[in-house]
Amino acid sequence: MFVCERGQKYRGKPQGRPVGTNHLNSSVRTREYLTTAEIERLMAAARKSSRYGHRDATMILIGYRHGLRASELCDLQWSQVELATGRLHVRRAKNGSPSAHPMQGDEIHALRRLQREQGPSSHELDVEISLSRPGRAGDVA
User: Fold this and answer.
1) Is the dihedral of CA 112, 115, 117, 123 positive or negative?
2) Using one digit for the tens of pLDDT, what is the confidence trace for 43-86?
3) Is the pTM higher than 0.85?
4) Which residue has the higher pLDDT, 96 or 27?
5) Which residues, other chains included, contact 108 with Cβ-Cβ below 8 Å and sequence gap of 6+?
6) How many CA atoms are closer than 13 Å to the CA of 95, on its beta-carbon side?
7) Could you report how far apart the first and last alpha carbons of the chain are, in Å?
């Protein structure tokens, strides 16, 4: 049990900002989103710094364009991607409504390349299988 600054009792772990900080996000940050140029730089850094750079850059692009949460992005499966029609079927987390999103050409191109490189798999961006390397403990067989 924790005691807050105002003397109120709290059960469990403290979450979010520390008690007593009353900063509004608008006073700390001028905006709450990334620009297209910032996303491009993030994708370029992902391509350079990782063994799975193309996969990581594709995840950043898809997540940015479609406003996906990390859990929604990691749970995407190839069955949700229609490359021929350019649609992405998204199952939303947190009681959101499922929807179909149109994809742009660069997204389709990146996903096609990813599908070729990844081979047959039910998961689109299967981190568990893609990151495993022979000889490491905990690898997927």
Assistant:
1) positive
2) 999 999 878 999 999 999 999 999 999 999 999 999 999 999 99
3) no
4) 96
5) 83, 86
6) 0
7) 44
Amino acid at 81: V
Tell me the two tokens of residue 35: 């620009």
Residue of 36, 39, 2, 40 whose CA lies nearest to 18: 2
Q: Are 86 and 79 in contact (CB under 8 A)?
A: no
Could you tell me the two tokens for 110?
Answer: 């990146």
Could you tell me if 126 and 137 are in contact, meaning their C-beta atoms sit under 8 angstroms apart?
no
d(CA 3, CA 9) in angstroms, rounded, equals: 5
H or E stretch covering 10: strand 9-10
Instruction: Tokens for 31, please give them.
Output: 């905006």
The residues, ordered by sequence, that sit 6+ positions from 92 with a Cβ below 8 Å of its Cβ are 72, 98, 99
